[in-house]
Amino acid sequence: MQTLNVALGERSYPIHVGSGLLTDPRWFAALAPARRAAVVTNTTVGPLYLARLRQTLEALGIACVEIVIPDGEAFKNWETLHRIFDALLTHRCERSTPILALGGGVVGDIAGFAAATYQRGVPFYQVPTTLLAQVDSSVGGKTAINHPLGKNMIGAFYQPGAVIADTDTLGTLPERELKAGMAEVIKYGLIRDAEFFDWLEANMERLLARDDEMLGFAIVRSCANKAQIVAADEREAGVRALLNLGHTFGHAIETGLGYGEWLHGEAVAAGTVLAAEVSARLGLLPREHLERLVALYRRAGLPTRAPDLGTERYLALMGHDKKVQEGKIRFVLLKRIGEAFVSADVPQAVLAQAFAACCGDG
Amino acid sequence: MQTLNVALGERSYPIHVGSGLLTDPRWFAALAPARRAAVVTNTTVGPLYLARLRQTLEALGIACVEIVIPDGEAFKNWETLHRIFDALLTHRCERSTPILALGGGVVGDIAGFAAATYQRGVPFYQVPTTLLAQVDSSVGGKTAINHPLGKNMIGAFYQPGAVIADTDTLGTLPERELKAGMAEVIKYGLIRDAEFFDWLEANMERLLARDDEMLGFAIVRSCANKAQIVAADEREAGVRALLNLGHTFGHAIETGLGYGEWLHGEAVAAGTVLAAEVSARLGLLPREHLERLVALYRRAGLPTRAPDLGTERYLALMGHDKKVQEGKIRFVLLKRIGEAFVSADVPQAVLAQAFAACCGDG
Hints:
Keywords (chains A, B): Amino-acid biosynthesis, Aromatic amino acid biosynthesis, Cobalt, Cytoplasm, Lyase, Metal-binding, NAD, Nucleotide-binding, Zinc
Number of strands of chain A: 11
Oligomer: homodimer
Catalytic activity (chains A, B): 7-phospho-2-dehydro-3-deoxy-D-arabino-heptonate = 3-dehydroquinate + phosphate
Cofactor (chains A, B): Co(2+); Zn(2+); NAD(+)
InterPro entries (chains A, B): Dehydroquinate_synthase, DHQ_synth_AroB, DHQ_synth_fam, DHQS/DOIS_N, DHQS_C
EC number (chains A, B): 4.2.3.4
């Protein structure tokens, strides 16, 4: 078991990572003044882990209001959010009633947005059960729902009171989801932690085989990177934007294909290859670095080619990106493995070339 | 012209109050790095003041995206919020594009919530055009929409960059709205400013006759009270709850009758009489203070009797109040004119007596 801290002054909070946390009341003791808590989960994770969490909370004298939403990115929308609010109100959840998100990125994002806005904000706890949520989305306070015109367009910065990541839950994670989560793990190596990238190259197969110790290390190292970035730039005025490597292209893929068609991590992998291709074409990233990252994605079972939506459609979709400034799309590009930066000066011709090189069946 | 400050550290902002502010680019200069701004207004205020504001912004080189919503509390809901998001996305408003609320409390609350959540938060400016918005709702960062089960149930604390209150706009305010705004003015006298209450007793008729100097004084004094309370307790952990005097009953009236049937200020007036009646019945408030406040509401043309919804229905509606803690409704009560406090110990029998005494045509 390891505990990291996200240093945000009065909004600081711990990230607990380890085995068996879900059944250990200690990690949930911070909720204890509350006599009730609302647990938001989905139809896949609920049957697996909700009873376990409920029992742990009941041991602390906390009764559970259970809110089960459908599984998948396609449901991270208004309709599901309304259902959560209806349930919270029907069960007379109060301003002091904590909301727990038990699940992956979708559950964390939508439950977090509900917590940020129900009665103008209630206590919130992340209990991530997927690799992607444990290494990335549960940390840092980004909450959101999707809009038909753009991913994560409506949301809030709202920090949790704690992140409680029980690595045992990865045992039931579908293969495809494990691989998708690996895209965000690799991201930390690419943007700021070359040593971690080397380690991932040395250990990818053991990670995919779910070696406990390896996964634990990768999760803690990822969270440590994320915690540092978030502490330096909570509301993404600067360095935090680097965490969006591959995400401008990736969000366009997700929105363009329809939410849920590709998993978020898959879209990020293909999107990062596009960002790297742009970087290489601009003479910023040595080709051999591009090849190394493509090779690692392949070993992780991640897509390295984006769907062929066409340059026009990609540009239209990316025009809704949250990093757009004065009509200019700002891209996270790579200088080398371990160093990323933001650029608003990518000529359209270079984008078109990158799409031609990296889209479709190839 | 007077400028007050809401002291909230890095979230501090000015409140400008005076005549002719809408046409003076100085007060909007803080927006100037932006080349575009989205102005949310309604079908009543838009035709009166949108052109004026547009011209002022254009003088600063800022183009206007105009978003006009229907007028009234009944439209402070999901549907209207969606329309605002659709418009922001369709016009490709960016994370740096400010949103201005030009209108009364409904426009300010919903535009503020849109600003708090569009792309996880964009710059926001309040340009209140009603007395109620100028003295109360535009200051302090409370934003929200209504839910069929409870008023202001979904929202966020999100401070504006400035409040720009042009008192000239009160010239076109319907009589009924002016009176409704007076309920929130009187509230400051009741909860913490007995001297102001005396002044209101001495000057109510001149205020209702829209004497410029009188109104200006009342607005500045109200904002000064509000700014002090908000600075002391931004997120309503303590003293800020006193601003809800009459609001627990008032919100029940608004929700129970259907949003928009009574104006918010009207419901607050009748709700405050209920709170005062409860206070008197508990032996906390001298009867002569209750009579003074009823008399002042009457002179202000405000209702002093609540609709007869029945005790059962009132209790059910108030059970959704944001101040409920562990199932107990917390009421703001009065000790005397100028001093309020929060109590969770109001026996149901006393509530029933107060409803019997203060509801219906009497």
